[in-house]
Amino acid sequence: MNSPAPLARPGNADILVRALRKVFRQKGSGVPVVAIERLDFTVPRGEIVAIVGKTGCGKSTFFNILIGLEHPTEGSIEVDGRTPYGEFDAFRGRIGIIFQQDRLLPWRTLLDNVTLGLEIMGIDPEERRARAERWLHRLGLDGFLRAFPSELSGGMRQRAALARAFAVNPEILLADEAFGHLDEVTARQIRGQFFEMVRAEGKTAILVTHQLEEAIEATDRMLVFGRPATLLSDVPLRGCRPEDVGGLRARIQSVLESNEPDPEFATTRESS
Amino acid sequence: MADRVPERLGEAVEAGDVGFGGRWPKETIVSLGAFIVLWQLASMVLPPFVAPSWGRIGQSLLRILTQPDFIAVTVGRVALALAVSFVLGMALAMVMYRWRGLERYGMPFIKLLMAVPVLCWILFAVLWFKVREVRIAFILVVVCAPIFIIDVLDGMHGVSKELRDAVRALRPTARQFFAKLILPATVPAILTSWKVNLSLSIRVVTMAELVGATSGIGYALMQANETFSVADVFAWTVVLVVILMLANIAVTRLERRLLVWRE
Description:
Distance between the termini of chain B: 27 Å
CATH topology of the domain at 1-86 and 220-272 in chain A: Rossmann fold
Oligomer: heterodimer
Order of helices and strands of chain B: HHHHHHHHHHH
Strand content of chain A: 15-25%
Radius of gyration of chain A: 19 Å
């Protein structure tokens, strides 16, 4: 369990989403509900991608398939040839997740919460303590190693959740509206720390977000999901100038509101 | 579980009012003080076999406390039976949690056991077992173990989906998932169950000791009743209440230590 073979093969795409479809059956009535209609895209290694979409557009379902908690109805998500839901154990320690709420275990101290993933990986106690302390220090939580989550503010708890996600040294980081429940100032601060750490560590990251402007400024690319989830637009953002932000924001917003494919994206896709 | 709610609420009130580990609230002191005064007044008017004075009860208490064997016997029976009930209850709850089919088939049977009145269990114990200690242990275990099973299982099922998903996403083995999430999350339910069973077992053991035992508080109560010694009955009642209070204080302290993480 200590040293599984690395998933990544140099030169390959990190995450490959192919003809992904997910249909639920409503409890009771059994009526099928399409959460994901069709998704096709790739996320190369080291890229930071934002996913935006209206509430109920299937982002969280996509997220759950990507982290391996649900199976798709059709199609697949592969990370270097392996599916996170099919080869569940192979991804132990490879994906770091930050959920909408901190989801810290209330009976564990911050330190013990951060070591949880490392315990599961079978890392020895000294090493996991050192790693957890390093990440908690990096996130400004040195004085709270022995504090319980209930003793801390929402922002501090979410920072501890970041430390938990990074401490396992994952290849991929996923954040599902991870900062949306915090006040704007705290959210901006922690989001900033998240992007800084993702860049510094060279991780691949996918974050589901509602914060268009910050996502435009901080990520490499934005995927716009329709409802049910299909890809309405795929907007490259690397090298985006500050003066472009307003225009891009308006374009993405108009796509979201119309729930129709972005004309620019359609043209690019056809020509490629 | 709905059928157990009234009992649980009653237990909670009892545990909170009598068995807390901290300072006594004003209302409790006033209420107990009023009872003591009223009883003393009643003892002045009524004959001693109806309402003995606190002086007589005190004399009985002193006599009891110089011969604590019966107290030790009853406490020993309760402790052993609760330990057996807890181990059995935990084991069965874990097995039922692991194999849901067993839960579906086993739970109706457990609910059936819980619906049987204690008096019936006492009669069955007399019919089925010869050895007195086995009878008493059987009665206590058959009454307490189902409560442990139901409370612990409820606690296990009550772990939120959010926490389950968060821990599952770290990809633990089944054993790790249980040890690191399900079991610690069930600790509050386990402690509540202990509180309920402590007070229940103290009441049930005295009834069980009425039938066939030649030692213990229940036996002593029966003897006091046969000799019309109301002071002794009262003194033994005081002893039982104090035992329950001390046990509740112990559990409350343990609870504070184990659940220090709660807000």
